[in-house]
Design brief:
Order of helices and strands: HEEEEEEEHE
Shape: globular
Number of helices: 2
Structural class: alpha+beta
Oligomer: single chain
Amino acid sequence: GLCSNDDCGQMSAWYLFSAMGFYPFDPANGKYVLGAPQIEQMTLHLNGGKTFTVKALGLSEQNKYVKEVRLNGQPVEGICISHEDIISGGILEFDMTDTPKS
């Protein structure tokens, strides 16, 4: 391989998405699967002055599991959000806990 080649940016993109707590598992249909964020807060600055902020509330070395996810204050049903959810702007909140879901 080439020195410093990170697969044309794919590894960096994977890390950033994963650290935010979601990943585009079905890009053709605009679906992002939820995971466990590794960053307390990150804001994406979107077209038209909109922002999409991800918050991992209570994140710590012990609190690394997701208890609940809310999008704009409403519980997220299932394990996905859509591309439209992101580009519309808003706040995605993860309540973090020290206990994994069973």
